[in-house]
Amino acid sequence: MKICFYAPFKPLDHPQPSGDLVTGRGIVEFFKSGGHEVVAASTLRCRWIYWKPWLWLRLLQEGRRVVRRLAGEGFDVWFSYHSYYKAPDLLGPSAAARLGVPYVLFQGVFSTKRRRDWKTLPGFHLNRRALLAARRIFTNKRVDLHNLRRLLPEDRISYIAPGIHPEEFSFDPDARERLRADWQAGDTPVVLSVAMFRPGVKAEGLARVIRACGELRRSGRRLRLVIVGEGRERPRLTRLALAELPDAAVFAGRVERGELHRYYSAADVFAFPGIQESLGMVYLEAQSCGLPAVAFDNAGVPEAIRDGVTGLLVPLNDGRRFAEAIARLIEDVDLRRRMGVNARLHVRRFHDLRRNYRVMEALLQETIAA
For 39, what's the count of Cα atoms within 13 Å in the CB-facing half-sphere? Predict the structure, then answer.
């Protein structure tokens, strides 16, 4: 296949790390590894573009430029990644039609509540138009699958479970020994959290982990908290950790994704609330290394964690239950190890990226041939 690829929310060369980039780049890498040709159609961002009139002329010009550049090049399909109310795909449907190729979406999101707010109403309608234009929509969240069924017939929607390359996130016993020595952890249970220190739900999630671990320490539980990440909110989070965990918190800084398996291997429990988390690749990565996870039961988190099997999910914003879940895994070594084994097997069985994307590849070829 020869594929036009476009990401209206965030282009793949965006410098800020995120789960969106991991997923988008993973799709492109998969197609290329299978011998398909992938061409980036545009880097135009559509984020809140309907409230940015100075970008409308650029959108029109970009549409013409893309079609002129790609016309006659023998493409089989236009493949856009991630269209929703905040960043509706305004380029893909018209460009695909003018190129005479099927328009396909991965992670198209339909949310009717966005039409009840004037700030998001334009995005709702523009995104709805993109969804209706798609020959097929792939989604990696079951809640989105349910919502898309309210708009489109079943034969135009396909669920593809989220995934990673499990072999890249395997337990490393040497790293466990070295890092725990660096952290002066000894046999003290280590709680690990991984996130960018961005303002909003990411920083708030880390703050909740710090407060929960502080509460557990004050109640007499032994633990050490390690946080991997970096960003603008570091000073605030550092002050909070000094107040809550004056001698039991380690800020490890930013760690490249290829090195994260070492940190997962050195910990005993992974904890991050995942407030409004669209998916949460870190949960799959941690579980692949044998770590049970604790999080809020909301948004896309249940796609990755099986409550009571590979980790523990608690009601959204219930800080007390969140702390209790961490405590339960800290104290019950057998439960922790059993869930860790389940987590590792679960990721390899259901969240192997290559296996899941092969299903998508077959359906995409079927769509092109129709």
Answer: 16
Q: What is the CATH number of the domain that holds 270?
A: 3.40.50.2000
Place of tokens 């109310």: 85
Residue 79 phi, psi dihedral angles, 5° rounding: -120, 110
Residues 28 and 59: beta-carbon distance below 8 Å: no
Residues 117 and 199 in one domain: no
Residues 225, 339, single domain; the answer is yes
- Considering the domain architecture, whether residues 284 and 336 belong to the same structural domain is answered as yes
Same domain, 156 and 209: no
Q: 147 and 182 share a domain?
A: no
Residues of the chain scoring pLDDT < 50: none
100 token code pair = 């005479």
Return the pLDDT at 22. Answer: 82
In Å, what is the CA distance from 268 to each residue of 245, 250, 286, 326?
18, 15, 10, 10
User: Which residues 6+ apart lie within 8 Å of 20 measured at CB?
Assistant: 7, 9, 10, 82, 278
The confidence score (pLDDT) of residue 15 equals: 76
In the chain, at which residue ranges do the beta strands (DSSP E only) sit? 2-6, 37-42, 77-83, 103-108, 136-139, 157-159, 190-194, 224-228, 249-253, 269-271, 293-296, 311-314
Q: Which of 68, 77, 91, 84 is nearest to 39 (CA)?
A: 77
Confidence (pLDDT) at 276: 87
Q: How many CB atoms lie within 10 A of CB 269?
A: 27
- 138 with 182, same domain: the answer is no
Residues 255/266, Cβ–Cβ less than 8 Å: no
Counted domains in the chain = 2
Locate tokens 């760690």: which residue? 255
pLDDT of residue 17: 66
Chain-centre distance for alpha carbon 280 = 4
Same domain, residue pair 85 and 156: yes
- HSE toward the beta carbon, residue 111, CA cutoff 13 A: 19
Question: Which range of residues forms the domain containing residue 220?
Answer: 166-350
How does pLDDT run across 2-11, given as a tens digit for each residue?
999 999 998 8
